[in-house]
Amino acid sequence: MNGNAANNGDLFLPAHLGPFTLTNRIVMAPLTRSRAGKGDVPGEMNAEYYAQRASAGLIISEASQISQQGKGYAFTPGMYTEEQVRGWTLVTDAVHLKQGHIFAQLWHVGRISHPDLQDNHQLPVAPSAIKANGKAFTESGFQDFVTPRALELDEIPGIIQQYVHAGLCALNAGFDGIEIHAANGYLLEQFLSDKTNKRTDEYGGSIAHRARLVLEVVEALTQIWPADRVGIRISPVSHANDIDDSTPMMTFSYVVEQLNQFGLAYIHCVEGETIGPRTIPADFSFKQLRSLFKGTYIANNGYDLALALKARRENSADFICFGRPFLANPDLVARLQAGAELAIAPKNTWYGNGAKGYTDWPTMA
């Protein structure tokens, strides 16, 4: 397949997102690689990795914890100390040198953690004291999740403040924008879900109450960042990290309609199961969700070139997010445009391991 616009539609043509003109409609998904240095600080190797992939119209950084409390995996980068800001500045400078754009994804994992990852071996926090099924990745290997501690009502403003501080850190590190991680069973989705949120105060019960924290975080961050440089990621029908909701169409329709008041850059939707099939329940419609949102829609999950072109032809998404294909194909945009074969990264290179399987993938040339 050649790369002309007649065959490829507008996938490879410049497009507007907020105040930016991106070089194409291909977005690099946030991809946890567990390769941060001591103190969860990004370094030169991370800068090289992102710069190699700067031909994406937009890069969304790997999820970065907003505090030590928000950490759920060993060796993931933070966005809350001066050293981390300096490390991330290496990354943003390297991406900008290649004329790329990069947003920082802000992350609090909630219960998807372990005392070994917390300050003073404390319990992870959550909306309610409900243990997740699964294991946490710690520096000493995988360990069973523990029963988290339910956040007290008077602690919730402190959670919002963690997001604010991380948002300021991202601003100081030179990012072009931020993405709020409200997907994949982490803290914000734990508040949204009626499986994980059994609170009886103003942050639990009705959909409006369960959505309160998400919307307060969005409101707080759009006081720091222009709203058209803030996005949010959701995964309405994914069961990642033992999450579930009894009425996802109702829950996420409410959330998306409420988000319209802020004028965000985009919503970023995981369509189906995270790192899994694009199976969507019969009573859920991403098309309907998209129609409820008055801004840009980024589609994610299992997209290949054919599916991406189809989405643009049918206008079912404004931008298409690719994740795993970017692992082993730093020049993914060029390969897709040329119809070239894609390399596949073995799973044992996804996390950790230093430069091997990270920055050593060749380009087509």
How do the helices and strands line up, and which of them pair or pack?
Blueprint: H1 5-8, E1 15-17, E2 20-22, E3 26-28, H2 44-52, E4 58-60, E5 64-65, H3 82-97, E6 102-107, E7 125-126, E8 135-138, E9 141-144, E10 149-150, H4 156-172, E11 177-181, H5 187-192, H6 207-210, H7 212-221, E12 230-234, H8 248-259, E13 266-270, H9 286-292, E14 296-300, H10 305-313, E15 319-322, H11 325-328, H12 332-338
Parallel strand pairs: 3-4, 3-15, 4-6, 5-6, 6-11, 7-10, 11-12, 12-13, 13-14, 14-15
Antiparallel strand pairs: 1-2, 8-9
Helix pairs in contact: 2-3, 4-7
Task: Walk me through the structure.
With 365 residues, the protein is an alpha/beta fold. It has a single domain, classed as Aldolase class I (TIM Barrel, Alpha-Beta Barrel). 29% of the residues lie in helices and 15% in strands. The chain is built from twelve helices and 15 strands. It has helices at 5-8, 44-52, 82-97, 156-172, 187-192, 207-210, 212-221, 248-259, 286-292, 305-313, 325-328, 332-338; strands at residues 15-17, 20-22, 26-28, 58-60, 64-65, 102-107, 125-126, 135-138, 141-144, 149-150, 177-181, 230-234, 266-270, 296-300, 319-322. The strands form four sheets. Strands 3-4-6-11-12-13-14-15 form an eight-stranded parallel β-barrel, surrounded by four helices. Strands 1-2 form a two-stranded antiparallel sheet. Strands 7-10 form a two-stranded parallel sheet. Strand 12 (230-234), helix 8 and strand 13 form a beta-alpha-beta unit. Helix 4 (156-172) runs parallel beside helix 7. The longest helix is centred in the middle third of the chain and has 17 residues, at 156-172. The two termini are 17 Å apart. Residues 1-6 have low confidence and may be disordered.
